[in-house]
Design brief:
The protein is mostly helical. Helices cover 69% and strands 0% of the residues. It has ten helices and no strands. Helix 1 crosses helix 10 and helix 4 runs antiparallel to helix 10. The N terminus is likely disordered.
Length: 261
């Protein structure tokens, strides 16, 4: 496998604008369990804030080929992410019907609303991603999610999915700030702005808050071992989020095994 290139040197840092990984006024009570997971992963998230792929999207230096690669892989990821949400929704049926319905609704949002943005890009670029192949880090991430959601308790499944939406929202907010700071000094493709607008927007933030509230409600009274496992899954998914952008940054491919004989 190709190793990711060393970090690009850039004058811009998203963390210059968001010095803390805690989002101000995000919770009425900042001592929630979900916030504890976030704080445990804060050193990793602070690195992800400055990922070259994200920064170069904002300053307009990201190559469109890398963004196309990312969008195709993200569409594949979202299919499995929605499947995981549906599985959790099914598990909650008969336990908490309201939570079950909300999880199924989140699945629709991932499969239809978020992917609608991706489909608009495919149409613009005249790309048919029907038979697209998941690249190594995509498969690694989705396989991990599906295993936890399928074989572990619901609380652990909710935790393994949480970084996907929360880290994206946080990155989107940081990118919005940098975009505002740069103003008209740089030009970027419209697709970059559409992505930033979606994940840094208020509608996506509302959905993330709702998901976090579900996590916090479900962990009330959870034992120490469950909380430990949830934190482990949260941190692992944060690592896999970073690696997902890594592979887009270096256009990671499967080895050509026929050439390795």
């Amino acid at each position: 496998l190709m190793l990711p290139p060393p970090p690009l040197q850039t004058p811009w840092k998203l963390s210059d604008l968001s010095r803390t990984s805690r989002l101000p006024d995000f919770h009425s009570n900042i001592n929630t369990m979900a916030q504890a997971f976030w704080d445990a992963a804060a050193p990793l998230i602070s690195v992800t804030e400055n990922h070259p792929f994200l920064v170069s999207m904002v300053d307009g230096t990201l190559d469109l080929e890398n963004f196309r690669y990312y969008v195709v892989q993200d569409a594949l990821y979202l299919t499995d992410f929605a499947d995981c949400l549906n599985r959790l929704g099914d598990k909650m049926a008969g336990v908490d019907e309201e939570v079950s319905k909300r999880l199924h609704r989140f699945a629709v949002g991932a499969e239809e609303d978020e992917k609608e943005l991706h489909k608009s890009f495919f149409k613009k670029w005249n790309i048919d991603a029907t038979n697209a192949e998941p690249m190594p880090n995509t498969l690694l991430y989705t396989s991990y999610m599906l295993r936890i959601v399928s074989t572990r308790p619901v609380a652990e499944g909710l935790a393994v999915l949480l970084p996907c939406c929360w880290v994206y929202m946080h990155a989107g907010k940081c990118m919005l700030e940098l975009r505002d700071k740069l103003g008209d000094s740089v030009k970027r493709p419209a697709q970059f702005d559409a992505w930033i607008d979606m994940y840094g927007g208020e509608e996506f933030e509302r959905e993330v808050k709702e998901y976090i509230a579900i996590v916090d409600d479900l962990v009330k009274g959870a034992d120490e071992e469950t909380l430990k496992k949830m934190e482990e899954h949260f941190i692992m998914s944060c690592k896999l989020e970073h690696m997902f952008w890594d592979q887009a940054n270096c256009l990671l491919r499967w080895p050509n095994f026929s050439e390795l004989r």
